[in-house]
Amino acid sequence: MSAVDMNMPILIVDDYKTMLRIIRNLLKQLGFNNVDEAADGSAALQKLRDKSYGLVISDWNMEPMSGLQLLKECRTDNQLQALPFIMITAESKSENVVAAKEAGVNNYIVKPFNAATLKSKLTAVLGAF
Amino acid sequence: MSLPARKDIAEEIADLDDGEGRLDIKAVRNLVDKHMQSAEEDFSAASMKMYSEVEEVAEFITAAKAEIASLRPDEITNEHLPTATDELEAIVGATENATNTILEAMEQLEELAESVDEGVSEKINESVTQVYEACSFQDITGQRIGKVVNALQHVDNKVSALLEAFGDQLQSAGVSRPATPKRADGKVERPDEDLCNGPQLPGNEISQDDIDALMGFD
After folding, report:
1. Closest Cα to residue A93, out of B56, B99, B79, B207?
2. pLDDT tens across A61-84, in order?
3. B50: domain range?
4. Overall domain count for chain A
5. What percent of chain A has pLDDT over 90?
6. Which of A12, A84, A124, B56 has the highest CB neighbour number within 10 Å of its CB?
7. A111 contacts in B (CB within 8 Å)?
C-alpha cells in the first residue's frame, strides 16, 4: 500500500492556463485528483494560507509574484516552511537551479517535461506511490 | 604672426632701458601698439577657425535631424511597433485557443478510454499523455514571444526618448511626437528580475540531468 495520501490537496501555480490544465491532467493520470490552481505567486500564497496543502507545484516566471518569491515566502512562514515545493519552469540556467535550491526547493523540473519525469520527481519528494 | 611669449616681451622692454632704469615712453607706446595689432590678428584667426568648426557641427546636426525625421520615428512608435506587438500577442492567443481545443478533445478521449477494454484503454492513455506533453509547446512559445514583445517595448521606449529629445525640431520637420507612449509597460519590478530569462535557445539550456546533478539527486 502506498504511504502517499493520493487525496491530498495539491496546489499548481502557473500563469499559463494551458500549462495548469496539462499538469492537472498528468496528475490525474498519476492518481492525484484533489488539485487547486493559482495564476501567480501572490494568489497561491493566499490559497496556501487559507487551506492546508500537501504539495505545491509552481512555475517560476510569473507576475506580480514569481515562483521563487513564493518559495521564499513559504520558507519563512512557520505554517508553510516544511511544505513540499516542486518548481516546474522553462528557466534552465544553472544559476536558477542554484537559487531555487538555496531557497529550499524540493525538486526542479525544466520545461518541456514529460509524464515520466513528473512522476519520478513526485516520487522523490513524496515517496513511492 | 603668432603671439609673443611673455619672456620675449620682457626682453624687448629691457632693450628699451637707457641703462639707467628709464624707459622712453614713446618707444613703450610703439611696442604696445605693435603687440596689440599682432594679438588682434591672432584672435581673429582663432575665432574664425572656431566659428567654422561650430558651423560644421551645426550642419552635421541639421543633417542628422533630417535623416532621423525621414525615418518617421513617430510612425515607428505609433504604428509599426504596436502592430508587431499586437500580431505577436494574437499568435499567443491563437495557439492558446488551439491548445485548449486539443486538450479538451484529449480529455474526452480519456473518458472514452474508460469504457473500452484494458489493452486498448492503456494505449489510448499513452497517446493522450504524449499529446499532453507536446501541448506544453504553447507555454514555451508563449514565453519566447513574450521576450520578443519585451524587446520591441525596449525599442519603443528608446525611439520615444529620441522623439522627446528632438521633439520641437522633428515637429518642424513634419514629425509629431505622441503625447504619451501608446503601449505602457505594465511590468512589475521583481527582486529576481535577473533570473527571469525564460526558455533558453537550443544549445544554451541545461538538461534535466544537469539540473538533477545540481540539485544533488543524481
Report:
1. B207
2. 999 999 999 999 999 999 999 999
3. 6-66
4. 1
5. 97
6. A12
7. 136, 139-140, 199
- CB–CB of B35/B142 below 8 Å? no
Burial class (CB in 10 A: 0-12, 13-18, 19+), B175: buried
Within 8 A by CB and 6+ apart from A5, the residues are A54
Helix (H, G, I), strand (E, B) or coil at A36: strand
> Exposed/middle/buried for A59, CB within 10 Å: 0-12, 13-18, 19+?
buried
Mean pLDDT, all residues of chain A: 96
Instruction: Tell me whether residue B29 is in a domain.
Output: yes
Are the beta carbons of B206 and A92 separated by less than 8 Å? yes
- Domain co-membership, B58 together with B76: no
Sequence letter at residue A84:
P
d(CA A127, CA A4): 7
Rounded average pLDDT over B138-158:
92
For residues B3 and B33, give the distance between their C-alpha atoms in angstroms, rounded to a whole number. Answer: 13
Q: Which three cell numbers stand for residue A87?
A: 518548481
* A41 close to A13: Cβ distance less than 8 angstroms: yes
| Res. B185: pLDDT tops 70 | no
CB contact set of B103 (below 8 Å; sequence gap of 6+): A18, A21, A22, A25, B132, B135
| ipTM, two decimals | 0.86
Mind listing the pLDDT tens digit for each residue in B47-93?
888 888 988 998 998 888 888 888 888 888 888 899 999 999 999 99
Give the CA count within 13 Å in the CB-facing half-sphere of A39. Answer: 6
pLDDT tens string B119-129:
999 999 999 99
Q: Using the structure block, give the residue that is written with the C-alpha cell 599682432.
A: B38
| B30 and B108 fall within a common domain | no
